[in-house]
Fold these 2 entries.
Entry 1:
Amino acid sequence: MPPQAPAQQPPSPGFYNPYTQPAPQQPPPGFASAPFPGQPQMHPAQPFVAVPAGQRPDGGGSPVAAVILAFFVSVLISLLYSGIMVFTYKDQSVTAANTLYLTHALVNAAIVGILAGLLGRRRNGAHVGAAVVAVLGTFFGYCNAVLLILAESRSPSFVTEVLEEEPFFPAKAWWYGGTAGDIDWFSPLGLVLAAVVGWGVARLIGARRRQG
């Protein structure tokens, strides 16, 4: 008769037998197991979103810096235009004066747009700011030329007297083009060209800088 195996004694209290413990329950799919005491909770990783081919993340751009730099450059260009008008107004015809005015509007707007596009990139604020700065540069360039021509042909004191009597005399001279009662349509045309070119060049340069 074979010897019988000794009967298993029930585990004493406080004794841990891993073979007698029930199997741990598996968490349902999609749920992470609870962390052990003292272990930090693990969060699921965010899914990776691939950038489409040929597209790069937006590099940003500073519309404020773009507008400020464009403004100072526009002031310099306007002063240059005013100086040219002072030295050449005696020999200018009406056609030459209008051509120089429109040329100044285009050049001022193009340079302002380039600077705004390089610094502001694809920011709409930089593009709109370029249009506004180009318009202001074109307008005040003409007004400053009117005052400088009066100071050169008469005297600086005469300019002071004119401004005291009529503060908006330069703006009226810009609107009427130096003729009495007739609107010079080249004046608003210059502002429209400046706004369109400034905005368009800034947008074009900003888009190319983003792609590059």
Entry 2:
Amino acid sequence: MSSPTNARDHVGVLNQAVDEALTAIGTGTPDDPAARAQRARQPLTAALAQLAGAREELSPRALAYTEAACRHLEYGELMEARMLLTAVRAQAGAATQPAPVVSPS
């Protein structure tokens, strides 16, 4: 995988990892939450490592929520991780939206 080169690419890497993690949390055998947590954690830790040099270009909340989700997944806490990853989607999406321009009245 090539390294991301700009803020939009960085957000894309984070969003892809979050999507993969949410898919892993939501699929699999209900009686094996540890395996689901491990599968969900892998793309998140890989993305955080890949984005280590670009932290200033990403939403601090999105990064903090992603790191917290990883910690919850480490302990098999799927619902807590899912909640945080859903919040990451909102934070990362907000970072890619242009700021509204307000004209003087």
